[in-house]
Amino acid sequence: MAESKSKNPAPGMTPQQFRLWRRTLGLKQKDAADRLGLKKRMIQYYEKGNRDGRPVEIPKSIRLACYALSEGIGDFDGQSSMPLTPEVSETD
Question: What is the pLDDT of residue 84?
């Protein structure tokens, strides 16, 4: 008999944990979005925990990217990691 998918997946990152991650790194929502390759609006959805009244789950790929950024990893080419480089802010 084939096994069915579990109704209770492993716990993921909560909206509060995601916000704490961003703030711990000292990132604004826009900065976090840029580093994760997302739109700022997605950061807002992840921190709110819902989108238009529907729950929003933070994908495993984003959770892993958050961990990598926390560890100072800026990129990975499949064999080795590249260090995180400081983002250059544009000033008016």
Answer: 86
Identify the residue whose tokens are 């991650």: 21
State which amino acid sits at residue 46: Y
Scanning the structure block, which residue is given the tokens 């790929």? 61
18, 63 in Cβ contact below 8 A? no
* Percent of the residues in the chain that have a pLDDT greater than 90, as a whole number: 76
What is the distance, to the nearest Å, from the Cα of residue 42 to the centroid of all Cα atoms in its chain? 9
Q: How far apart are CA 55 and CA 76, in angstroms?
A: 30
Long-range contacts from 64-71, C-beta under 8 angstroms, 24+ separation: 65/36, 65/37, 66/13, 66/18, 66/21, 66/36, 69/25, 69/35, 69/36, 70/21, 70/24, 70/25
Q: How far apart are CA 52 and CA 46, in angstroms?
A: 12
